[in-house]
Fold each of these.
Amino acid sequence: MELNAYKCTECGELHHPRHMVCRACGNRDFEEVELNGEGTVLTWTRVFNLPEGYMVPYLCFAIVKFDDTGLVVSGRIDSDDPQIGMRVKSTVAIVKETEIDHYGFIFEPVD
Ligand SMILES: [Zn+2]
């Protein structure tokens, strides 16, 4: 599983997740660009009211800005004590296993 952004073939605007239409110019063609796995936590939250099926009391989610592309994405952060400005590395994993697996970013703190 790879981490991809979607680059507009007309204007070069990067999108994540994939959009049907470029938000900058309206073009509908994109090329995949691999995302570097490291970035910085802009903000985070702890969610207690999880959907049915999660066997944990809470999960933490973060908004992270990637170093190389500047893209801002959301995902789960694998830390009980996240901090704004924390350095993280992302992987893509199955976030929830159901009839249809949902893939998303998982952020792990970097030393
Ligand atoms: Zn565009």
Amino acid sequence: MPESPGKPPEFDLKLAEVAAWVGTGPDGIGQGVPDAAEEELLEIEGDDPARALRQTLGMFATGVTVITTKVGDEVHGMTANAFMSVSLEPPLVLISVDRRTKMCSLLYEGRRYGVSVLATDQRELSDRFAGRVADGGAAPAFDLVHETPVVDGSAAQFVAKVAKSYWGGDHSLFLGRVEYACYDENARPLLFHGGQYGDLASGAELA
Ligand SMILES: Cc1cc2nc3c(=O)[nH]c(=O)nc-3n(C[C@H](O)[C@H](O)[C@H](O)COP(=O)(O)O)c2cc1C
């Protein structure tokens, strides 16, 4: 097989070699989901482990996005902070969506979703698309890119096509190949930390 240009040699393995390596690889590589006995090994302080885990995870400060998709003429949006960049080449992003949400029932491999990174003045939109406030007030405006809605005036916008979906416990993970990306360099991003919204304090970068 010809060598693929630009690919580091460790990725250029023949399938048989990969199979052999997985068999002897580090713990967890090539293995399935943990069984019930392993799940009980969660070590965490406090009487309410689920709450303590949520609070601990909340120490990870994030931005806030609205995930959007369009079914017929209807736009559906859902607030999400579980968004991450995965790869530049190919361009990939990942979102984690609660399986009980309407959004989860609308996404599948081949479908497109929009990701709008909210700005500090779009906090109400975050509450609205998290189902925290009843519909009302001015309707949010969307731009359509590749037939996919993105929130007008947001700090950054992506359109991605679901390349793969994965089991993620009570969430589903949707790996998307980015087809469109743009940002407003003057926007200030809305932050989320410890269950509260935040703003970049001074805009100053740490030395
Ligand atoms: C700041 C914030 C971040 C959130 N992040 C996520 C997330 O990453 N994934 C998720 O499934 N739900 C997340 N939620 C909750 C959903 O927005 C909420 O369950 C929403 O009502 C689901 O909408 P749907 O069922 O209409 O699709 C978040 C809520 C807030 C306020």
